[in-house]
């Protein structure tokens, strides 16, 4: 966990964590300090996330939510999954109860408009951060620059054949 000052235009690295935080451009009431925590693998798996979960909170004593830019460096785990997983990474906002009741429909994440930079191996988005802690997950979407991995529709009229020659 790290508390860091976000005043100024440059992104600040959260200690030894693979996270950088900066005030969001044109954001009113942007947090001056943000607390960042990368949750452990067991908690992340219990939440049903194949990726990373971050816990973020305002640490400047202001109760109102403000926007901050969060960037996650995924170089160290870019090849953790197959199917060009890291090229499909995006940031997703999770409700707090996603850690305790991940299977509930209302606990599904809401994708944030994210930028995945394949050269620097980082994914970033603007995140709302308030006095109560926010959860943000880095998870793979169904498609990316290498293709679309979403399920294809099945039609009851579809046919298929297997085996060698047909007579």
Provide structural commentary:
The protein is mainly beta. It has one domain (2-146). The protein is 4% helix and 38% strand. It is built from 1 helix and 13 strands, in the order E-E-E-E-H-E-E-E-E-E-E-E-E-E. It has one helix spanning 41-46; strands at residues 2-5, 12-13, 19-23, 33-38, 52-58, 66-73, 89-94, 110-111, 114-117, 122-129, 134-140, 143-144, 147-148. The strands form 3 sheets. A 6-stranded antiparallel sheet has the order 1-4-5-11-7-8, with no helix packed on it. It has a 5-stranded antiparallel sheet with strand order 2-3-6-10-9, with no helix packed on it. It has a two-stranded antiparallel ribbon with strand order 12-13. A hairpin with a 4-residue loop joins strand 9 (114-117) and strand 10. The protein starts with a strand and ends in a 19-residue tail after the last strand. The model has no long low-confidence stretch (mean pLDDT 81).
Helix and strand content put the structural class at mainly beta
Mean pLDDT, as a whole number?
Answer: 81
Into how many domains do the coordinates divide?
Answer: 1
Cα distance, first to last residue? Answer: 68 Å
Radius of gyration: 19 Å
- List the helices and strands in order: EEEEHEEEEEEEEE
Q: How many strands appear in the DSSP assignment?
A: 13
| Broad shape | globular
Work out the strand percent: 35-45%
């Amino acid at each position: 966990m790290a508390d860091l000052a976000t005043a100024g235009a440059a992104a600040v690295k959260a200690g030894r964590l693979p996270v950088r935080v900066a005030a969001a451009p044109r954001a009113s009431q942007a947090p001056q300090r943000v607390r960042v925590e990368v949750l452990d693998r067991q908690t992340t798996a219990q939440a049903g996330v194949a990726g990373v979960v971050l816990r973020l909170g305002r640490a400047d004593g202001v109760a109102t939510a403000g926007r901050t830019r969060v960037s996650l460096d995924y170089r160290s785990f870019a090849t953790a999954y197959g199917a060009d997983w890291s090229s499909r990474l995006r940031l997703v906002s999770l409700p707090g109860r996603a850690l305790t009741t991940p299977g509930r429909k209302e606990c599904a994440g809401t994708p944030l408009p994210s930028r995945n930079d394949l050269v620097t191996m980082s994914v970033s988005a603007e995140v709302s951060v308030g006095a109560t802690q926010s959860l943000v997950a880095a998870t793979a979407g169904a498609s990316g620059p290498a293709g679309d991995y979403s399920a294809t529709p099945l039609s009851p009229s579809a046919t298929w054949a297997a085996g060698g020659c047909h007579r």
